[in-house]
Write a structure and sequence with these properties.
mainly alpha; elongated; oxidoreductase activity, acting on NAD(P)H; NADH dehydrogenase subunit K; about 80% helix; single chain
Length: about 100
């Protein structure tokens, strides 16, 4: 079995790519994909530590996280559709005009 450090480095790289996507993009679809990358990085950590310590708790939490990610995408796509319907664009800086 590979050492856990390899999985942690992979997870850190995927998380940093997701964080970079959130901080630098204005497209709402890119936001959703970046959040998914960050959640997948957390899943990699959970499964790696679960395998290292020999219990299934991390893998069960990983399944719950996948369900959370699916719900987040469903709600996010709905929000993006409303943005596109109101502004004809999915740029998140346009949504600030929806304030009071």
């Amino acid at each position: 079995m590979m050492p856990a450090e390899y999985y942690l480095v992979l997870s850190a790289a995927v998380f940093c790519i997701g964080l970079f996507g959130i901080l630098t993009r204005e497209n709402a679809l890119i936001f959703l994909m970046s959040v998914e990358l960050m959640l997948n990085a957390a899943n990699i950590n959970l499964v790696a530590f679960s395998a290292q310590y020999g219990n299934l708790t991390g893998q069960v939490f990983s399944l719950f996280t996948m369900g959370l990610a699916a719900a987040e995408v469903a709600i996010g796509i709905g929000i993006i559709l409303v943005l596109y319907r109101n502004f004809s664009d999915v740029n998140v800086t346009d949504a600030t005009t929806m304030r009071w």
